[in-house]
C-alpha cells in the first residue's frame, strides 16, 4: 500500500490527477521485483512498458559492438524509467535498462497507458510535464557538458545530480557515465580530496 501512495505522490509532483483518473491509472499498474543484475529491457528489443521505481536502482546504457558501455543515466527511487524514444517510435531501443540492486517497481504497459492518455487529459499533462522536465530540460546541459566541460567538472556535476546514490555505484559505472576510464576517475577523486 505504501508503494501505491509513493507512486501517487510522484505523479502529483508533475500534475494533479482527479480521483477518477488516478483510479484508472492504478488499474493498469502491477508490482514487480527485478533482481540485481537482471535486465528490465535489453538493447535491441522493442519496449512495451514504463516503470515507476519504488526501491532500487537501474542503469540505462548502450553497448557498442566492441563491448564498450556508455551509461546515459541512473534511475533510483521515486523516478520513472523507460526507453522513451523507442516507446514513442515503437522501434527497437538503443539502451539496456539493468538493475544494479534488487529493484521494486510498478510496471504499466504502453498500450494501456496510451488509452488513458486519450481518455484523461490530466494524465496527458502528467506525461508532457514529465517528458519536458526529465528528457528536454535536464538533457540540454548534459549534452553541452559532455562535449565541452573537463572530466573533473563533469564529475562535480555528477556528484550534485546523483549525490544520493553515488555511494551505491561502482567506480567503473561512474566512469562509464562520465565517458572516462576508471583510472582517470581515480585520479580525479584524488585531486578532489586534496
UniProtKB/TrEMBL annotation:
CDD domains, sorted: CAP_ED
InterPro entries associated with the record: cNMP-bd_dom, cNMP-bd_dom_sf, RmlC-like_jellyroll
Gene3D superfamilies the UniProt entry points to: Jelly Rolls
Domain Cyclic nucleotide-binding: 13-134
Keywords: Coiled coil
Keyword Metal-binding: no
Pfam families recorded: cNMP_binding
Species whose genome carries this gene: Zunongwangia pacifica
Domain of life: Bacteria
Organism lineage string: Bacteria, Pseudomonadati, Bacteroidota, Flavobacteriia, Flavobacteriales
The keyword Coiled coil appears for this protein: yes
Record's protein name: Crp/Fnr family transcriptional regulator
